[in-house]
Amino acid sequence: MAASLVDMRTRLRLGALLMALSLLPALLAGCASLNRNHQALMVLGDLSAGDGESRLKRRSEPPRREGLHYARQGRAYQADLYHPRVPSRGSLILVHGFTEQGRRDPRLVALAMTLGRVGFTVMVPELDGLRDYSISTREVEAIVDAIRHATRASPEVPPRTAVAAVSFAVGPALIAAMDEAVAHRVSFVVAVGGYYDMTDMLRYVTTGEDRGEVGRAVPPPQREARWAVLLSQLQWLEDQQDRALLETIARRGLADHAAPVSAEAQRLGGSGRALFDLVTNEDPGRVEALIGRLPPALARELEALDPSRRSLDSLQARLVLIHGPQDRVIPFSHSRRLHDALPPGQARLFEAGALQHVAVSSGWRDGWGLWRALVHVLALGEGE
Predict the structure, then answer these.
(1) 247 contacts 274 by C-beta, under 8 angstroms
(2) pTM value surpassing 0.85
(3) N or C terminus: which one in the chain shows less Cβ crowding within 10 Å?
C-alpha cells in the first residue's frame, strides 16, 4: 500500500512536470506579451511626456545617433541612424512629414529616440521635398533608395525592414513599399494620419467635404492645410513670377489664414491662377474640374502620388494604420478605405483618439487605441 502511494505520488509529480513543460511555450509567450504591453505603455507615456521625464527614459538607455552619407545611381543622400543599446526589433525607416527642419526636427528626433529605446534600429533619411514643401515622386524614389541602403548587407537573401510615415508622407512611403525592386524587403508599414485618395483629400482640405464619410459628421478642416498643399506643388509651375507670388500667398496664409491675398492673386498668370483657384475653392462639386485645369506636369504628379489610383496587389508588407477620429488635416475615412482595399488580414486599423493629426495629446486622453497600436507594432518588430 505504501509503495503504491509512492508510485502514485511519483506519477502525479511526473504528470504535473510534463504538463508544466507542455505549457511553458504558452507561458513564455504570455510573458512576452505582458512585456510588450508594458513597453507599449511606457512608449505612450514617453511620447506624451515629450522632452520631460518618463518611465521609459528612466528604465532604458538612449540609442546612439550616427550621421550617414550614401548614394544610389548618382543620387546623394543624408540620414541619421539610431543604434539601440539592445537591438531586439530589427530596423525601421522613419519618414518625416512636412518640416523645414527635416530629419533633425525635435519631434522626429524624440520619436526616433523612443523607438530606439525599445530596440528598433531607426534610420531617418533626409527628404528634400518634405523639408521644403515640394513633395513629388522624387520622394518615392528617395524612400526606395533608403530601403535599398537599409537592407544592402545580404543581397542574396535580403534582410527586411519596416517603414513608418506620417501625414502627407504616407502616400510616397506606401508607393515606395510597393516598388517591385524593394517590396520583398519591407516587412511592415506604419501609416499615421495618412491619405488614400488624393482628390478626396484635396476636396476635404479646401471645402470641408469628406466623401468617404457619407452621412457622417466630420470636423472642419484646419484652414492652414490648404496653404501647405499650395506650397507643396509650386515646383511644377514654370512661371517664376507665379511661383514667387504663390509662395508669398501660402506663407502669409500659414501665418494667418485670414490674411488678405487678393492683390497678389490678381497678378497671377494662367497656371498660377489654376493652382490658386483649386486651393481656395470651397465648392466640393468643382474639385475635379479644377484639377483638370492644372498644368499637365502637376496633374500627373498628383495622380502618381495617389494610392487609390494604383493596384495594391504589389504590397507584400503588412500595414498598420493609425488615425485619429477627429483628424482635421486628413480625415479618418482615408485609413479606413485603405484598410478595406487590402486583402483581409493584411492590414490593421487602429482608431487613436489620443492623436491630434500626428501629435500625441498630453495627459493620456483617449490613449487606449494608440496603446493597442503600439503593442501591435512592437510585436511586428519581433517578427510576429
Answers:
(1) no
(2) yes
(3) N
